[in-house]
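for the recovery benchmark. tokens below, seq after
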């Protein structure tokens, strides 16, 4: 059954006569009458009773009109959904992110995203692994990653979004906490380090080891932590110092004192599939804002 026939029967019921309905529908009365007869033939019963005051729906007509209104409303909603999706204003969108991002600017940015795109079903997945985040984007499980160390894969597109210093998170009371200026890289050789296991975050591990080599010191590993919260807890317990993004200071872990590392910067990237041409992805990237400049503590 065509949707236009349902529109006709609803209009006839609302107007109460063929003449009024035909004017509203911009049809000739004979054409509308012929369409009504065809609809009644398809249904197999009369839909309207013809009387002195026009047309009155039969029980079958009332049932059809009720369902027709629902069908027409759903059809209109489907068209609206398609239009909004085509404009990038609706749909489901999944963002995976690292803790360092949500501790920094990402929380406020996601709030802005919800306000600017209220029809979007925004889903969030926290991850502690850069490799897992990049893989989630490549596999299509997530539409966008906000991460520090995206996989080097030609299928991924990246955009610098935020820069901030790396900070040495020290046990409270350690002699290195008393300096007023950022700590020199050589400080990495003056205390054991609490770092990521290499199998959890290869690039994070390698980045910290490279900083030690740059400073000309041999790193001493005090402990391994598989999440930022665990690493900071180990620092508070005296196992050593952790090198993390400066935004982790907002966690205000008792027993931990942050001190920026001189001359270091870490970067948050927006990461998406290079072949993703979704208008919603473009909207989300626009809503998250332009690449940020470096920040200082």
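predicted aa per position
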């Amino acid at each position: 059954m065509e949707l236009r026939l349902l529109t006709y029967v609803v209009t006839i019921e609302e107007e109460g006569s063929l003449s009024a309905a035909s004017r509203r529908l911009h049809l000739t009365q004979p054409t509308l009458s012929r369409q009504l007869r065809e609809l009644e033939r398809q249904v197999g019963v009369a839909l309207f009773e013809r009387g002195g005051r026009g047309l009155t729906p039969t029980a079958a007509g009332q049932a059809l009109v009720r369902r027709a209104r629902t069908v027409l409303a759903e059809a209109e909603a489907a068209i609206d959904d398609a239009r909004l999706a085509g404009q990038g204003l609706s749909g489901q969108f999944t963002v995976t992110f690292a803790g360092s991002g949500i501790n920094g600017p990402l929380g406020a940015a996601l709030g802005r995203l919800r306000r600017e795109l209220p029809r979007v079903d925004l889903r969030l997945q926290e991850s502690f692994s850069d490799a897992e985040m990049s893989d989630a984007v490549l596999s299509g499980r997530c539409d966008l990653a906000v991460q520090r160390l995206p996989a080097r894969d030609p299928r991924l597109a990246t955009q610098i979004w935020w820069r901030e210093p790396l900070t040495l998170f020290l046990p409270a009371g350690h002699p290195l906490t008393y300096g007023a200026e950022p700590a020199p890289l050589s400080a990495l050789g003056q205390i054991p380090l609490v770092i990521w296991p290499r199998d959890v975050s290869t690039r994070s591990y390698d980045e910290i080891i490279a900083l030690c080599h740059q400073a000309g010191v041999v790193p001493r590993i005090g402990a391994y932590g598989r999440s930022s919260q665990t690493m900071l807890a180990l620092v508070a317990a005296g196992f050593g110092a952790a090198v993390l993004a400066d935004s982790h200071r907002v966690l205000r872990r008792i027993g931990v004192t942050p001190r920026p590392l001189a001359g270091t910067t870490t970067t948050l990237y927006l990461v998406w599939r290079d072949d993703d041409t979704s208008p919603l992805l473009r909207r989300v990237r626009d809503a998250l804002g332009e690449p940020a400049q470096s920040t200082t503590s």
